[in-house]
Specification:
221 residues, mainly alpha, 81% helix
């Protein structure tokens, strides 16, 4: 560090600018989780369908998404879609779409495990009561599956908060991008990115600890 002179006063001087980026980070994460929950449920239902083409499609989509880097997917959506298909998305929308698709593939696995964990006897009881397969799924299976998948969904939210920082690459104004812009103007990267790292930690660590406690309580029942 030599003769480096710390200037932590740059943080309070620019706190409003940085916190505006944090608001974007949390908003992006919340919207993405909501969309990914729907997308993940769709993929999970397709994966367990009796219709072979749907199962194949869900398997292909899931494997491709889970086995390619999220950053590459974001760059593909933002830069390749306009060239290949004429679909132009602004950076904010591209980030939402990319993160939602990526998270959907992992949430689908959590849904599938939750659905399969619902006791078979509950389905059989619903049939005895005269419920159709669709009614059984919506009223009996899905509520129990969601309860079982809540910890993984919460963990996915923590991941999304961190993954949202990738939006900086395509100029989305979340907190990491705000830090890059501020650093390029006042040349204090050490203070700025240390502050940003602390902010991420203060948000993600309590959530991660809460999820662990939640999972322990569920497993002890």
């Amino acid at each position: 560090m030599g003769g480096y002179q710390f200037r932590w006063d740059v943080i309070p001087q620019n706190i409003d600018f940085l916190l505006s980026g944090l608001q974007q980070t949390l908003l992006i994460s919340a919207i993405t989780l909501s969309l990914a929950m729907l997308g993940g449920l769709m993929i999970a239902v397709m994966d367990m369908s009796r219709f072979a083409p749907l199962r194949f499609l869900a398997l292909a989509v899931g494997e491709i998404i889970r086995n390619t880097p999220i950053l590459v997917q974001l760059l593909w959506i933002y830069y390749v879609l306009p060239v290949a298909m004429g679909i132009n998305l602004d950076s904010w929308t591209a980030l939402i779409v990319g993160l939602s698709i990526y998270s959907s593939a992992f949430i689908a696995e959590a849904y599938r495990a939750g659905i399969q964990a619902v006791p078979k006897g509950h389905r059989e009881a619903a049939q005895v009561l005269g419920l159709s397969p669709v009614q059984t799924f919506i009223r009996i299976v899905l509520p129990q599956a969601i309860r079982l998948t809540l910890p993984p969904l919460a963990a996915n939210f923590v991941q999304l908060i961190k993954y949202s920082s990738l939006g900086a690459v395509i100029s989305v104004g979340e907190i990491t991008r705000r830090g890059m812009e501020l650093s390029s103007s006042i040349f204090r990267p050490l203070e700025i990115f240390t502050f940003i790292a602390i902010i991420y930690f203060l948000i993600c660590w309590p959530l991660a600890m809460g999820i662990r406690l939640w999972e322990r309580r569920l497993s002890s029942r």
